[in-house]
Amino acid sequence: MYKIIGADGKEYGPITADILKKWVVDGRANAQTKVQLEGTTEWRTLAEFPELAAALPTIAPLPSTSAGSVVSATDQVNGPGIGLIVAGALNILIGLARLVLSLFMGAIMGTMPAASGQDAEIQKIIAMASGTVGIVVGLVVLIMGGLTIFAGIKMRKLESYGLCMTGAILALIPCTFPCCVVGLPIGIWAIVVLSKNEVKSQFH
Predict the structure, then answer these.
(1) Which residues of the chain carry a pLDDT beneath 70?
(2) Residue 148 lies in a domain
(3) Count of domains in the chain?
């Protein structure tokens, strides 16, 4: 037989173990309820009585957010994150080269004498490719490279999931050589890692 101290501070009992277990199920008692075994003077928590603790509801484990999971996610994003930084840096170098080449070719084309016929059409196409179009393409490549680098940095920190996925997609775009050769496998690698639930859940 047992006595308990209810939530209202009053003493109840003596009652049998079966009744007390039913009170646990009904929510009238819990693991912290003070219980006294008949014939003793000591008050203990219900959870300290093995025969009563079995009636306590089982608490489901929390989703895995342990340090081990975080470390695992960090390890997985580290490689593709560095890869995105490398691919972005290559894009920036090639973008700068395109800008310089476009400006240089534009200056050369400006000093060439006017041609006629088919040569004039070829000259016009070269002038367009090396002038405004070349400069715009170079700037686009620079911007893409900068975003890819930033995405790689964020990916290694498990930050800004959307930006990291955008950077991985940008790495896939075959805009330049050798960036398309380098960026394609890195972009695929980054997307595969970012798509894993255990990695995605660790982003903040």
Answers:
(1) 58-71, 105-131, 174-180
(2) yes
(3) 2
